[in-house]
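User: Sequence in, structure out. Go.
Assistant: Echoing your sequence, followed by the structure tokens.
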Amino acid sequence: MARERYRIGNWKIPYRLETADMSRVAFYAENPRIYSRFAASEERTQKNIGEKLQKMEHVKSLRALIDRDGQVNEPLWCMEVGKEDELYGSYDYVALEGNSRLAALKMEKSTPPVTSEVPCNVLDLSRLSKAERESFIFSLLGRIHITGRADWQTYENAAYIYRRFKNQGVPATELAKDLAGISPRKVRNTVKAYELMLKNEDSRPGNWSYYEVLVSSNKVRKAREEYSELDDIVLPMIKRGEFPKAQSLRDELPVIMSDKRARKRFLGEDAEDRFGEALELAEATGGSNYTLRKLKQFHRFVAEENTEREIESLLNNDGTTKVTAFALDKIYDMVARLSPKAQRRRSSSRSR
């Protein structure tokens, strides 16, 4: 067979194309799509892996395509099973990439597949140490799925990044470079979010976006830093599914935390709808209105002890006099227009 080379960065790994019977090819238990779906390593048996994958809709669709075409069109990326590898000892190859296609082919149906043969790009990893082999495999999977087809769920991507960063000690800068298009900051935030998910003992992929919000949203992160008890309330709520969606956590939790009454309600004793009740309190005082929030922030700024002195300093500086005076004039003009309306509205409310 002709030998090609797979190139990733400094890696130049030879491989050959072979055809193997599906019974000779094992699922890769460390594949992020598989790894993220099992809580314990002892559960990642070939039988359990196959059954879990075969319940997924995209695997069922793949089987329909295989039946239609009469073959698996895209080769699996495989490595040979070493004699010392007890986990895959009864197989000849391990499908590092392509486990979904392999599961589809192995799926038991009333009509057997047209063929039991599967094309495999068999990588020669014999010259690599165990650590080098593991590093290359993860680079291969990241290149194909995260930067190639991007068909992994974000939770699975996160599990991959976490394991490379924490277990293999790959720096965030190197991971970002390897994955291309992902910043070092994104890598670090992903690791932090995944750690929160592990801390919360939450293994549901659909909840990933909530943990991502907790570390990536500046407003939410600041609230968590200011109120140490917030995590003890929010994390169990995420696990119980008490937030309507991740966007609610991102947009509405800061509104609650910025309103004194709403914040007290949210951080207080538990209730059936803690989040909903606190949000109602915040909205009642205009907490969810962007313009009102900005107006309150401006009022707090103006009321600060040093603000007047600092503005006077700007006016006394030749370089900032004009722009400062212009801003003050604009503020004065708006206040002059709106203040009489505010007074009339207030008087009208009092007379009712």
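User: And one key feature?
Assistant: The mean pLDDT is 85.
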